[in-house]
Structures are given as structure tokens and as C-alpha cells.
User: Fold this.
Amino acid sequence: MRLGVAPSGRRSAADAVELARRAEDAGLDEVWVSEDYLERGAFAVAGAMAAATERMRVGLGVVNPWTRHIALTAMEAHALDEIADGRSVLGIGAS
Assistant:
């Protein structure tokens, strides 16, 4: 069983990254960022979390293909996976 955390989009990006650091220190396995309308960009926050952690998986759940072009999603997901050194997970769905 893997345990993870999903910080609310209503917190600042810096607070979300700090939560990811603390979660990793506490032994959690995953951190998930949601792509919520009118909140911080999920890829930017996930990238910062990936850069600030070493072993936990960084997931995006979910990215909406109707509001974010699939080519842009692929570009961002690839960059995130490079930053995360293969630890990223991408969820795609209609909210």
C-alpha cells in the first residue's frame, strides 16, 4: 500500500512545496496536485515539488483535455517527468 497527500489548490505554491517536503520526510510515497480552475497551475507546482523531493512520486490528477490542448499537456508532462527523474504520474480526465 502506498500513502500520499494532495494539498488543496487554495494554499500558496510555496506552502504546497513545503507540504511535499514534509510528507516525504514523514515517509509518504506520493503527492498529488489537482488542475483546478482559477487556482495555481498544476504543472508549475508539481515541478517545484519534484525539484524539492527525492523519492516520492509526483502526480497530476486530473488534467482536463478539453481545456488544455493535448500537445501542450504532453510537452508539460515530459518536462515534469525529466525534473522528477521518472517519478511523475499523469492523470487525464474531464475534471
